[in-house]
Structure prediction request, 330 residues.
Amino acid sequence: MIKTISYLGLGTMGSGMASNLLKAGYQITVWNRSPEKSESFARKGARLASSPAEAVRDVDLVVYSLSNDQAVEEVIFGTKGILSGIKEGQIAMDMSTVLPATSLREQEAYAKHGVDFLDAPVFGSKQESADAKLWIMAAGNKAIFEKVKPVLEHLGQTVHYLGKNGNAAAMKLVGNLIVALELEALAEGLVLAQKAGLDLSTVMEVVKVADFRSPLLVSNGQNILKRDFSTSFALKLMLKDAALIEKFAKSLQSPIPALRVVGKNLESAVTLGFGEENASALIRALEKEASVEVKGRSPFSPVKRSLKRGSRNQFMRVRKKSHPCAIGTL
Prediction:
């Protein structure tokens, strides 16, 4: 039974997962490249480590969620990296979004140390991580997966076994391809609706119920209309993932023509300075090209000056009877 865990990488996703492991009663050791992010975990009872090598000593399970393939390589193979401290019999699990080839390299390196390895990326973002509502995929030895599964169930609402190492990493890129195309479609659709003079609140009402509806379209569409681009999944990370997907697809000679269009718009939005904003800020590149801003009407939009003075009192009486949502935005 797994009792002790080290968690490396306390960013947007890692901090939520590490917190939930603490709440579940596991003995946790944490490490982060920026040490200040670890301090709140110490106050919750976690042990702090000064390096990856120190973090992984004497624990049952080593978990990490890092920003990209390079960060994973540095934390594993670098000076005072994981391989400097991990021992035979331990389990390592990578929850980052990386190339399947990176996962296979990790598995090979750990095997030389007698360490079992799972690639276990997730779907979901900041809120799902904090609420333990992630959708988790894992690949590797089935017996090791079953051993680790109770830990994963404290982090997500579903856990899926994908088979051999590298398969979960591949599924993550397949899923992120779909996400990228959905966000592009949403952005193009809303810009077109704005240019066509449609009421965007009504547009989103249709999006919420039509046969093409999805939680991703609804939540991001609502936030775009409110001009809320607070970060759940950063635009710059989606650009990074688009590059991974393109590299992976090229290695398999699998065509991805639509993603190249998305990649161009992602790059444009990052160049415009929106890389730290949510991935839905992709729409800003299209807005600039179309010379529009997609925005819902305020529920308290001022009365048009063209109203005749004699009808103003009648209008105000009608407005008082109306619920704000009747003229509001999503």
